[in-house]
Inverse folding.
């Protein structure tokens, strides 16, 4: 599944001590929410579960926060980012689908530029994975600015689409654009252009890479060794003729008859 921009909600710059941003349309469990807060000071409270990723300061301040949406976020109607005092501030909340849930933004960088209508920001990043989704955020305080456009990176520049460009009283503004970049090489500096800017201007430029899930195919080879034990029984048949010598010994026992008497009678033979 490709990582992709879906929708966003924006709160324009006003004087306030908290920025309330409406839930982006069709927010679903597992979507990545990325917030940009334009302010003078760093937000001192975030909606539950949000992580502050990056803050860049140059007169104004751009703070980037994120969270993977859960069922409570889907049920919510808006999200509040608190500030330490009342100041000119605004913000946007972006809904991204298809991002990995573990460490979804591994690469981010911010830089500043001053007194130029075409700032170049030394905020190069090197995406970890091909087809990462790049988000490019800017803020400016400038004289008579009417818009921000012409987003680019120096190396392997993808095709950018602007999500929002909010200008207040022609002196303050914040914007963001997105692009899918196939390359995993360093982006080099990022650039943009401000319309109708005079000499004085201060800028912040931030770029982040949102990583898609990594699909891995594992080929497994299994070798089985079988040991077969077999008992072989043999029947041996043979004829045996026994030869035996028998010696028979007969013993005669002679008994001497005992005649008793000592008188002999002569028989008359006539």
């Amino acid at each position: 599944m490709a990582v992709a921009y879906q929708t966003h909600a924006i709160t324009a710059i006003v004087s306030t001590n908290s920025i309330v941003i409406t839930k982006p349309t069709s927010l679903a469990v597992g979507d990545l929410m990325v917030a940009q807060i334009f302010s003078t000071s760093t937000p001192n409270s975030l909606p539950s579960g949000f992580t502050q990723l990056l803050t860049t300061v140059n007169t104004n301040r751009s703070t980037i926060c994120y969270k993977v949406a859960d069922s409570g976020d889907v049920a919510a109607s808006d999200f509040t980012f608190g500030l330490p005092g009342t100041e000119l501030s605004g913000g946007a909340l972006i809904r991204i689908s298809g991002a990995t849930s573990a460490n979804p933004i591994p690469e981010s960088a911010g830089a500043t530029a001053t007194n130029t209508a075409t700032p170049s920001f030394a905020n190069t990043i090197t995406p970890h994975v091909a087809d990462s989704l790049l988000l490019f955020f800017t803020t400016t305080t400038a004289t008579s600015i009417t818009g921000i456009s012409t987003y680019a990176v120096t190396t392997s520049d993808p095709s950018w689409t602007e999500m929002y460009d909010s200008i207040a009283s022609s002196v303050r503004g914040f914007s963001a654009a997105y692009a899918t970049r196939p390359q995993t090489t360093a982006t080099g500096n990022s650039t943009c252009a401000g319309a109708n800017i005079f000499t004085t201007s201060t800028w912040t430029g931030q770029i982040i890479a949102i990583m898609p899930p990594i699909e891995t195919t594992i080929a497994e080879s299994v070798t089985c060794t079988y040991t077969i034990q077999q008992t072989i029984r043999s029947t041996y048949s043979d004829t045996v003729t026994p030869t035996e010598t028998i010696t028979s010994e007969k013993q005669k026992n002679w008994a001497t008859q005992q005649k008793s008497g000592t008188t002999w009678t002569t028989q008359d033979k006539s």
Observations:
- Residues 246-257, 261-266 have pLDDT under 50 and may be disordered.
- Residues 4-210 form one domain.
- The longest strand covers residues 78-97.
